[in-house]
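Hey, I'm writing a tutorial for new members on how sequence and structure tokens pair up, and I'd like a real worked example in the thread rather than a made-up one. If someone can provide the structure for the chain below, I'll link this post from the tutorial.
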Amino acid sequence: MSQPAPGKDVLGPVIESRDQLLAYFASGEKPRERFRIGTEHEKFGFVRATKKPIQFDGPAGIEAILRGILDDEEDRAAHGPYTPIEEDGRLIGLTRQGASVTLEPGGQLELSGAPLSTIFETCQEVEHHLRLLKRVCLPMGVGFIGIGYHPTASWDDMASVPKSRYGIMRRYMPTVGGRGLDMMKRTCTVQANFDYETEADMRATMQTSLKIAPVVAAIFANSPFADGALSGRKTERSFVWTDTDPDRSGFPATFLDENFSYESYLEYVLDVPMYFIRRDGIHHDHAGQSFRTFMTDGIDGIRATMRDFEDHLTVAFPEVRLKKYIEVRSADCGPWSRICALPAFYKGILYAPDIRDEASAVMGDVSADELKALHRDVCARGYQAEFRGRTVQTLACQLLDAARRGLDAQALPDGRSEVLFIERLIDEAERGESFSDVLAKLYQNPWQRSLAPLWDQLEFFSDAADVFP
């Protein structure tokens, strides 16, 4: 759920015509030799002694952690200084060289990585971030885990982040869905961002990504727990999204139209209700109002600008999202290895056009309603869910094989292949056992229905953690 940070009020030009907005999407086009991958992941912080969620304030709170990152001399010497992001005098994020460290509504810490050329670089970026976080947090008695849904905490247990945007969302979410507040505070994801060459290339990438999204949710399922026990689902995080806000999430039918275009996406996003108007670093509550009206007539004497449009793009939450790049959004966060695996999987499929077409064909001419139904089935049954007489395990094996061949075809100039980043996923799919299934089995035995061992299993700082070698 990345969003622009408050700061200098650079509003950009006033929106005078739709052509400005279409040109915004077209400006993201780039030649294939300039294609990059950006990776984002969120994680839950906890007090290591008690396993309770960390709060925003205090000597071991979220703001103190951000301050520790900002002041870390070893990191500064190696990579240069971070620029602090503040709102109303509170430190709420950091930015540096195309990357940022920001906060989700429940205090989840997010690394939005820089656009990078290879998955090896992505994994180095993740490694540096997590080692820096370990250096800062262990003296505070704080750890972080990678999992899609908080396994033990209630909504009220989670931190409250002093960002005016989130206050608006907290008020609005319960009016449009039953799980919106859970989405905000109790979920974590790993996402990846991909480039497109032309409008047709954008269409093919968006449509393939949307078609395979339910299968991706099964491959990366890692949230079988809620409120201290098994939830009965493979991915509680994905299930939360089925009851969050139908006006801005899920599987929009227009994305699958054979003539889907920049204009199609624009029409979709203009129908998404507003959350806010940002001025002078303050997010003013306009939840539920129309951005179309904001463009044509203004609101409270304020004219919509291109910065407002960029802000509005961040409040649409479909499974695949278009900005000046394409963002894929269907995976639970997981251990270190899976943070690197997600962009590798998608790179193998999306950056090899023949493979991308093959992946699309695996799903066939599918409707949005079929995808919604499959998504719900995946939430409950994971690899055992079914689609048109085939199990999702079968679909996952086909897609992972396609990704493997796509990565081999994109081997680096020195001969290295990035297939190693998805080998574990391939093994799991062949067994029909996701990471969520593994955790559920551990919970039953040998953990004896206790979640106490979970923290060592999933903590990024633990010697027992699932770290990519």
